[in-house]
Specification:
- This protein is of the alpha/beta class and 602 residues long.
- The protein is built from 18 helices and 26 strands.
- It has an eight-stranded antiparallel sheet, covered by helices on one side.
- A hairpin with a 5-residue loop joins strand 7 and strand 8.
């Protein structure tokens, strides 16, 4: 979850490290720090708080052509100056930054303390520089010492380390992402590409068990036995401007407004002559599939619900499982089971574990992700990319829309292969309307009343979101987005669930956002009326001609379209309501408390 940056090459490192950390703050912003090595010692600067606080505390930039940096999302120990990374050994000659969790750190720390090592923090990370120092006393070779140190660790890690007097950066990964960036005059390491995208688009996605050593003019990768490893150099097709805020006040608002472009990229080339086509999934790919399991977390889970609903309607046995619960709740799995793993980053620890469990049980796997070269794309049998471009705001927006569309198309592709399925009667109309979805989103953005609705409902006690069918997953996503960035109480329900308990919470100070799609809205209408009779204001979100047109107190309208896509247009309205409410409440919209963009620890 934390953000790592390292740099070595010509010129000063500090500015690049600080900029890289700013680009990675979506991965954590509890504390930040850098360490720079210039031949006269390792200089560490760190503090609790955001990267801006670190920058303000630096009295001139620390000098040196190589260094490491870190922005933290706390796991072990609170966000204090002492717990901020980088961490060093007792004398300060070795500095380390780390993303992940070291499961055996208690045991390692006790052993090191018995040997005279002194610790200053509550973190699991601090054992790593001490281990490197301990092994250096035995082998007198830093690369070998780093190799021994990481081989001792149990758990997950992406690590970058520097050592006093050495013009090298050492790094390793297991279970946490780490990317090597290659430029003419400098090398980079980072948790994610946006950290160095202004400098280079040439990358190597390191894999578990890789150990990389960087020098100013060379790098090499080995495994934990010291044997050379070759890794392919990829070119990232993201525009550096996509990772910036541009004219917008927040990344989230920019990414909401970027959805027409993202959806155009998602759709491009995937509907041909009325058929759904994925380049790497030829006809017959899914002919032997009898059961489909979607696994995902958070927003990706809601997108998975969207796809699963369509696949069930086609007649295929389908379930959606929270990835963190997969091992304990999944039903029978065999070679006729397809596990579809949905993860924006491709590095979500729970989703990766679910895929590995399913693979061990004989299932086939397919990843739906945004990041080429991510761990999930390498480990799954097949991968489909949502093509949304970089998303920096912690609260997912355009990636949800692109995931839902990709999964909707994927379900049609799967159903076409499985003999027992029944294609949707209006499939041609659905695919034809999909081509207009980007322009419909643009219309929503241009005509929305979301800011007015956010202001009118700002003093509410609670916010409830309901929907039926495809509208259910949109309601859940709307509630999640609202609570993530406003910190107000919000809950989402299937429409019929409202009267089975949650109605006890409904008052005149709890607006109901009712998602309508033009299909199966009667249950939503019935439950909205029941809530309205208890004094709750009803906000209908959907096409203007819908079941709630004569019932709702307020209306956030979307263009008339096929019911499959109406829910995604309603979602854009709910994203905007959440954004404007959070802005009125003066919340840190791009950096909601306690949350990080990519959850790479369990």
């Amino acid at each position: 979850m934390c953000g790592i940056i390292a740099r070595i090459g010509q010129g000063e490192a500090a500015d690049t490290l600080l900029t890289g950390l700013e680009n990675l703050e979506y991965r954590g912003y509890d504390s930040a720090g850098i360490a720079v090595q210039n031949g006269s010692g390792v200089k560490v600067h760190k503090c609790s708080g955001e990267v801006s606080e670190l920058k303000s505390q630096l009295d001139g930039q620390p000098h040196g052509n190589l260094g490491i940096g870190h922005t933290r999302w706390s796991t072990h120990g609170p966000p204090t100056d002492e717990n901020a990374h980088p961490h060093t050994d007792t004398v300060g000659d070795v500095a380390v930054v780390h993303n992940g969790v070291i499961d055996n750190y208690d045991e390692l720390k006790a052993d090191l303390q018995a040997k005279g090592h002194e610790f200053e923090s509550d973190t699991d990370t601090e054992v790593i520089p001490h281990l490197i120092t301990e092994y250096l006393d035995d082998v007198d070779d830093t690369e070998a010492a780093v190799r021994q140190a990481v081989d001792t660790l149990e758990g997950s890690y992406a690590i970058a380390a520097i050592v006093d007097g050495e013009e090298r950066v050492y790094a390793a990964r297991k279970g946490s992402p780490l990317v090597l960036g290659l430029d003419d005059e400098e090398w980079f390491l980072a948790s994610d590409v946006p950290a160095f995208l202004d400098h280079t688009d040439e990358v190597i996605y390191l894999e578990d068990g890789d150990l990389v050593t960087l020098e100013p003019n060379a790098y090499w990768i080995t495994d934990l036995e010291g044997q050379p490893v070759d890794r392919e150099v990829d070119t990232v097709d993201w525009d550096p401007e996509d990772a910036g805020k541009g004219e917008y006040d927040h990344y989230m608002l920019k990414e909401i407004h970027n959805q027409p472009t993202a959806l155009s990229n998602t759709i491009e080339g995937r509907v041909e002559d009325g058929d759904v086509a994925f380049e790497d999934l030829p006809a017959g790919t899914f002919a032997d599939i009898e059961t489909v399991q979607f696994v995902a977390c958070g927003t990706s889970y809601h997108a998975a619900m969207y796809g699963a609903q369509l696949l069930r309607e086609a007649g295929l046995r389908t379930e959606v499982i929270r990835a963190s619960e997969y091992e304990s709740t999944t039903g029978p799995v065999d070679e006729n089971t397809l596990v579809v793993a949905v993860t924006q980053s491709g590095e979500t620890a729970d989703t990766l574990d679910a895929v590995r469990t399913a693979t061990d049980r004989g299932a086939r796997s397919l990843a739906v992700t945004n990041v080429v070269g991510s761990t999930i794309s390498r480990e799954a049998d097949d991968a489909v990319y949502i093509r949304a471009g970089p998303e920096v705001g912690v609260a997912a927006t355009k990636t949800y829309s692109s995931q839902a569309v990709t999964l909707s198309l994927l379900t049609q592709r799967i159903a076409a292969d499985v003999p027992e399925t029944t294609p949707a009667a209006d499939r041609d109309a659905m695919l034809a309307e999909l081509q207009h979805l980007p322009e419909y989103v643009e219309q929503v953005l241009e005509s929305t009343r979301a800011e007015t609705l956010a202001e009118e409902t700002l003093d509410s006690d609670s916010y409830f979101f309901i929907g039926n069918g495809l509208g259910h997953s949109v309601a859940l996503e709307g509630a999640l987005k609202f609570k993530e960035i406003t910190y107000e109480h919000a809950e989402g329900f299937a429409s019929g669930q409202l009267k089975h308990g949650p109605l006890a919470l409904v008052t005149e100070a709890s607006p109901i956002f009712a998602v309508v799609t033009g299909d199966g809205d009667e249950k939503t209408k019935t439950n909205a009326i029941e809530a309205q009779s208890r004094g709750a204001p009803i906000v209908a979100v959907g096409p203007e001609e819908h079941a709630l047109v004569d019932v709702a107190d307020e209306h956030l309208s979307v263009p008339a379209t096929h019911p499959v896509w109406a829910g995604l247009l309603a979602n854009v309205q709910l994203q905007l309501v959440s954004y404007h409410a959070a802005e009125l409440l003066d919340r840190p919209i791009d950096k909601p408390r306690n949350l990080a963009k990519s959850v790479t620890v369990e």
